[in-house]
């Protein structure tokens, strides 16, 4: 007689053989024959910040521009305070003039019908390398130029009148930028930015997350010498980056491990970096507010599943061999449930405020938090709207 237990065992053995053979060649790592998983030094769950938002305050956010913006990652206002400007899934940067959305800029000179509106946000991934994918956006306060971290084309910029952006840099030390992610520009026009991986592009973000590989870099572009230099290397998915108010340092996040690091630009410690905080979960962009505090967008709160996966390299590899869609893998990775968190940190890494939506009811996920006039403007690659939270 087949007991339940035998049945489960047989099922798993057959399933494991099936995954190993991959008869239909549709596992999401078949394109990467040398795919390797690396150890992730994930800190224990007990060491995560104790500060929590038990009232789910993020759920009080106002939802704006429903279905008018697809996957708005970064949200920026120009030096005159106009906007927001945001980069969307089809590769455009669009601009809200107070009445309607207008096309502002684009990063690809080869746009075609391939870049047209798609039914679901994940459908855009396939053509991103052709259409471009603007992630981090920043205005240079003096010149009014918009700097764009395009995931595929590197650092680009466009004048205040918009149009086709031009390349600022797309390589460093002879290695092309492969997944440019977030940036900041100082007064002199130096650009500090992250390249999340030199192996995987954004359209293979699932492989990047699961592999735990450490080819990510933090870089600097110097407009005088026109050189791009590496400031920090061997990082696991570096993501958000933001300069301190006095520009003597910047803060960036290490996505895979989920922590904040401070890199000193001036003073005794210049050229060195240190970990200043552990994060509640998987981070995205960082933005400095007028007081010099840092808003860190946490895509999704950490859970037991992601935690266990971090410590078991072979299970992670097996996971990517499962014949399931990226959407489903993503859902499993976030523990089956969206859970956005917005955290405000002091420049020393002290938690100042936490806002959550534990059920992902209103704000499913968050990629960036831009504070302006007492309000938080929140974009996300997974949302078709912008959420606005009133701090008052
Ligand atoms: C599986 O797919 C990859 C590309 O996705 C291809 O290079 C490889 O030859 C395929 N293998 C088989 C056995 O069909
Ligand atoms: C331009 O886009 C087409 C698809 O529309 C693609 O086949 C071609 O490779 C692209 N050219 C360049 C230079 O990227």
From TrEMBL:
Residues 181-268 form the Strictosidine synthase conserved region domain. GO terms for cellular component: endomembrane system; vacuole. Keywords: Glycoprotein, Signal, Vacuole. Residues 1-16 form the signal peptide. Its main location: other. It is found in: Vacuole. GO terms for molecular function: hydrolase activity. SUPFAM superfamilies: Calcium-dependent phosphotriesterase. Belongs to the strictosidine synthase family. This is Strictosidine synthase conserved region domain-containing protein. The lineage of its organism: Eukaryota, Viridiplantae, Streptophyta, Embryophyta, Tracheophyta.
